[in-house]
Write a structure and sequence with these properties.
The chain folds into 3 domains: about 15-205, 3-Layer(aba) Sandwich (Alpha-D-Glucose-1,6-Bisphosphate, Chain A, domain 3); about 210-440, Alpha-D-Glucose-1,6-Bisphosphate, Chain A, domain 3 (3-Layer(aba) Sandwich), CATH 3.40.120.10; about 445-545, TATA-Binding Protein (2-Layer Sandwich). It is built from 17 helices and 22 strands. The chain has helices at about 15-25, 55-70, 90-100, 120-130, 165-180, 190-195, 205-210, 215-225, 240-245, 285-290, 320-330, 355-360, 375-380, 410-425, 430-440, 455-460, 525-545; strands at about 45-50, 80-85, 105-110, 135-140, 150-155, 200, 225-230, 250-255, 300, 310-315, 315-320, 345-350, 365-370, 385-390, 395, 445-450, 470-475, 475, 480-485, 490-500, 500-510, 515-520. The strands form 5 sheets. Strands 1-5-4-2-3-6 form a 6-stranded mixed beta sheet, sandwiched between helices. Strands 8-7-9-10-11 form a 5-stranded mixed beta sheet, sandwiched between helices. The longest helix has 20 residues, at about 525-545. This is Phosphoglucomutase.
Length: about 550
């Protein structure tokens, strides 16, 4: 823990915006360095211009690759293009638009020339595709909750959610080929021409005016739930005030500042500025406001592209994301009569097993998938999955009638759900979760890192159940060893070991020489510590073998 974690940033913590923007145009990536090549993770290509990892050549190449890819897939409708408030998002937006227009792509940008949350783009794609034969897709310029020095770009195909591995691999490979070829195949027009040619779309109205189809906003308004909303300087900054006005909610935007340096943000646990609404350090301002006597029944925050949620209640402070997911699932499946009895609950393998117990108690089917929201897209799209959630505070769920709302994470939606829970039950989401622990037990959950070199990480990602020789974990028989997700059979890129009251999952980091150990126990903190220690031993033995 950094000694100033949770304290407002000082001038020396802030990025040099001029240097960041200068590097975007002035630095050319070294393609012999793997960290400077185009690489799509679970949420697109990310990096900093200062590291040669997110520069104009990357965006020129990615935009050209997307234009070519969508053509090969027969996607001939409009492309919805949005951006968040990161410093690198504006120049990347301009570059992307210049290339797409030059390639004859019909691009729709924000009619208000404002910032666009990720869920608003997903919603726009799906709404268009519901009634048009030509299919639309989208691009988001955002590194999500990453520090101010970073940039990011991700592609959403006509399914509306994050692109799958087949698409991102093809786009990345072609983008790297274009850069290595000196970008000679990239088409581009001046920004003024591109901006004048692009179509306009009112993302804000399309999203906000449709919210009653997925939430009980009348209950929130009738009860007068007192709400505090903090967009953390992100793309939701213009949305919360309009949500309050259009739906007559007692909602106060506690901070409407936008600063690409995020000078107003408290430092995260490691001393970096990070717009992580699931971090108590990054959310220290809103938590302090609630502890200081702010008269809100519920408060919440979002990350920079508003695809994540952070829920703050008077009785619990910032809710652990796993706790809110469990509470949300319990509430929704008891209060959405339009959802069929066969509609499943989706969770990632590293999310809390409290969800498993809640789902079993409801008699519902659990869909357990690898890390990455893209794995929920098919089920949300066809209505067979009512709720999909990740332990990192990202989730989405169906409309009242059981049809798709978004197929990307929607932080605005989950925040408003916390207000609906308060209105409809008279209790906070944290009080609802406390009731679940009375019924199912109180798990303890943590994530730690362990060192691993590149060879060891590759070995971890390729393990099979037969590589695990242990038969017990922390005093209990091992009941399952997974290297593929039971929900869809996809490789999890590591392993998960399960007992009756505990589990751990180990996955290699994509950016550091470590692997991540997620672990949980229903038998208390001491048992969790034993699980974590034995997990390292189990993994070490497997890697040595």
């Amino acid at each position: 823990m950094h000694d100033r974690a949770g304290q407002t940033a000082r001038p020396e913590d802030l990025i040099d915006l001029d240097a960041l923007l200068g590097a975007y145009e002035g630095v050319r990536p070294d393609m012999t360095d793997p960290m400077q090549r185009v690489a799509f993770g679970t949420s697109g290509h990310r990096g900093s211009s200062l590291d040669g990892a997110f520069n104009e050549p990357h965006i020129l190449a990615i935009a050209q690759a997307v234009a070519e890819y969508r053509a090969t897939q027969g996607v001939d409708g409009p492309l919805f293009l949005g951006r968040d408030t990161h410093g690198l998002s504006e120049p990347a937006f301009r570059t992307t638009l210049e290339v797409l227009i030059a390639n004859g792509v019909e691009v729709l940008i924000d009619a208000r020339d404002g910032f666009t949350p990720t869920p608003a783009v997903s919603h726009a794609i799906l709404t268009y595709n519901r009634t048009n034969a030509r299919k639309a897709d989208g691009i988001l310029i955002t590194p999500s909750h990453n520090p101010p020095r970073d940039g990011g770009i991700k592609y959403n195909p006509p399914s509306g959610g994050p692109a799958g591995g087949e698409a991102t691999s093809a786009i990345a490979a072609r983008a790297n080929q274009l850069i290595e070829g000196g970008l000679t195949e990239v088409r581009r027009v001046p920004f003024a021409q591109a901006h004048a040619t692009a179509g306009r779309f009112d993302y804000l109205s399309a999203y906000i005016d449709d919210l009653p189809s997925v939430l009980d906003l009348d209950a929130i308004q009738n009860v007068g739930v007192r709400i505090g909303a903090d967009p953390l300087g992100g793309a939701a900054v213009a949305y919360w005030g309009e949500i309050a006005t259009r739906h007559r909610l007692n909602l106060t935007v506690v901070n409407d500042a936008v600063d690409p340096r995020w000078a107003f943000m408290p430092l995260d646990a490691d001393g970096k500025i990070r717009m992580d609404c699931s971090s108590p350090c990054a959310m220290a301002g809103l938590i302090g406001m609630m502890k200081g006597g702010a008269s809100y029944d519920v408060a919440f925050g979002n990350d920079a592209d508003a695809d994540r949620h952070g829920i703050v209640t008077p009785d619990a402070g910032l809710m652990n994301p796993n706790h809110f997911l469990a509470a949300a699932i319990a509430y929704l499946f008891a209060n959405r009569p339009g959802w069929g009895a066969d509609v499943a609950v989706g969770k990632t393998l590293v999310s809390s097993s409290m969800i498993d117990r809640v789902v079993a108690g409801m008699g519902r089917r659990l869909l357990e998938v690898p890390v990455g929201f893209k794995h929920f897209v098919p089920g949300l799209l066809d209505g067979s999955v009512g709720f999909g959630g990740e332990e990192s505070a990202g989730a989405a769920f169906l409309r009242h009638d059981g049809t798709v709302w978004t197929t990307d994470k929607d932080g605005l939606l989950l925040c408003l759900l916390a207000a609906e829970i308060q209105a409809r039950t008279g209790s906070s989401a944290s009080q609802l979760y406390a009731g679940l622990t009375d019924q199912y037990g109180a798990p303890v959950y943590a994530r730690v890192d362990a060192p691993a070199n590149r060879t060891q990480k590759a070995r971890l990602a390729a393990l099979s159940p037969s590589d695990i020789t242990a038969t017990t974990l922390a005093g209990q028989p091992i009941t399952d060893i997974l290297t593929q997700a039971p929900g869809n059979g996809e490789a999890i890129g590591g392993l998960k070991v399960v007992t009756a009251d505990a589990w751990f999952a180990a996955r290699p980091s994509g950016t550091e020489d470590v692997y991540k150990i997620y672990a949980e126990s229903f038998l208390g903190p001491d048992h969790l510590a034993t699980v974590q220690a034995e997990a390292k031993a189990v993994v070490a033995t497997a890697l040595a073998g």
